Amino acid sequence: MAQDIIDHNRFVLSRVITMIESNKEEHRQKGSEVGYPDIAFWAIPDMRMKILDVALKVMKQRNYRNPARSSIRLGISGPPGVGKSTVAVIAVDPSSQISRGSILGDKTRMNDLAAHPNAYIRPCATGGSLGGLSQHTDEVVLLCETAGFDVILIETVGVGQSEVLVSEVADMFILLLPPVGGDELQGIKRGIMEAADLIVINKADGDLKLLAKKAQSECRSALQFLRGGAGHKWWKSDVLTCSAQTKEGVNDIMSSIETYWKLGDESGDLRLRRGKQRASWMWRKSKEDIVKMLEDCELVTKRAEELEVELRQSEKTPRWAAKELVKVFMKTGKDL
Amino acid sequence: MAQDIIDHNRFVLSRVITMIESNKEEHRQKGSEVGYPDIAFWAIPDMRMKILDVALKVMKQRNYRNPARSSIRLGISGPPGVGKSTVAVIAVDPSSQISRGSILGDKTRMNDLAAHPNAYIRPCATGGSLGGLSQHTDEVVLLCETAGFDVILIETVGVGQSEVLVSEVADMFILLLPPVGGDELQGIKRGIMEAADLIVINKADGDLKLLAKKAQSECRSALQFLRGGAGHKWWKSDVLTCSAQTKEGVNDIMSSIETYWKLGDESGDLRLRRGKQRASWMWRKSKEDIVKMLEDCELVTKRAEELEVELRQSEKTPRWAAKELVKVFMKTGKDL
């Protein structure tokens, strides 16, 4: 199976990603009962772990720790309707050195891209509490790299936590914003602007062009008060405008990405960044695991039922009840 | 202090909310060292718990479990720039029965509202991993009710998890959307539309009016495939359009809210909803607590440092390392 992925078999790639993402005990149960192949696979313990091990080995041979010699991971985020899909499609334009001239023709839309033999589009299940990003995104990215894709775009909707998470799986995080004024920019959280390596104001065409330029200078002055670009010495986050419609400004974005890539590789920082990302995924996953254990713990769910009654009848607060649950849970550690 | 809140002292209200929201050990430490009053308060163990207990007692006397006899909690969400503040200000218009004729004159903007003696605006710290909503939002709402506010608007930016959370603290959850087409609507997550008791397409004026009407009918047909309105028997989620500028459609929204309120109270469902919300806050807080314990556990952080090195050097995945951390953490339960 791992070999199939290495051989660029995207049917197997899809199946493995589905398995990696499935989190439901019932899937595993049902899988072993009815023998449905995709799911029964789950019944084999640690199988997904093994595939990932092989993937990691392959990528190490391909110099996984040196991003310039593996793939480019671009994270793209922004509120709904800002034009992420359009801008992302332009970003893998074949005229650019970055895409290694392999992916796209001009005027391609996301739907056309999906049908292209050299592209693979995967809407990812967001699952639990990770705010728009799957808890397995790092593993999905690893699998796509193993399958030999050069450019990996990780796109999330929404202005919230997911952007910060995207910056934890991407080599470069691009925040796309609509041409809005200062008041509305304040609604965009500090942490997201700080995490952005590049901010792009889209829709800078027609009536909105002036507004976009104004938003650009407001964003720029806001950036001066933030750390910006995750605080690289070799990179200062900038704000650019573009129009996905007229293509104006797109070349500037492309060359900004290329410069970032070059400088980040030379400084060794992109390699370091990937190392740090692996550490933060370790933490993220351990938190998800512990929460899942709490939810699944029988003693805890039993006590929770009692507490729900108490919450209705007595003057106890949810905060107090929460502490009770944690106490019950931690005691189960004794038996391990 | 609790008495001050009951007496509508908003200075004390602000201080207590700040305390409730503060999560930092260092604040507590520093507080007891330098004797800064707001923070030193924190050093007294369980003080915040006690204030909440008193608040809960007061609200019970005021028939807390019967929403119609306490306050109205309206949750409002939507992407940045959709006009949440404007629409929310209109929603507490004095001409409406709901606001009990006490809060606002016409054409009030959020800034004017902040200065109004009968209004209290509190930007809440979002803190950890709750995606735009504070983990103490339920307690802040309780305190505001204790202080006697009739209408409580809980507003979050972003299309993500925070909306679903807002629906867990509000009696009615209103999702505000811009007038965008079907493609872009797909970027809005199912769960959010399902959680909405009412969807409002704002900016239905001028050039955008036609687009808004189109978005309305697309949203309506999307809703047919979803459960909608948290599956009440007495309520079917609807999609309305409005213009915060021309005020067109605002009356329909107001009467939709009033109908919801009336039917929800009569059916007893709003009371049940608050009970369920308390249970889900218990779970939410217990998860936050357990994650914080994991992060703060010395044995875990020590092992994490070793694992970070292993992740850089070996072929181990972050997923494997996460399991190691959880194992170390659960063993600490033995000593409790």
UniProtKB/TrEMBL annotation, chains A, B:
Coiled coil: 290-317
CDD domains, A to Z: MMAA-like
Keyword Metal-binding in record: no
Alphabetically ordered keywords of this record: Coiled coil
Any single Pfam family the record assigns to this protein: MeaB
GO CC terms: chloroplast
Subcellular localization(s) per the UniProt record: Plastid, Chloroplast
Superkingdom of origin: Eukaryota
GO MF assignments: GTP binding; GTPase activity
Protein name (record): AAA+ ATPase domain-containing protein
Species this chain originates from: Guillardia theta (strain CCMP2712) (Cryptophyte)
Taxonomic lineage: Eukaryota, Cryptophyceae, Pyrenomonadales, Geminigeraceae, Guillardia
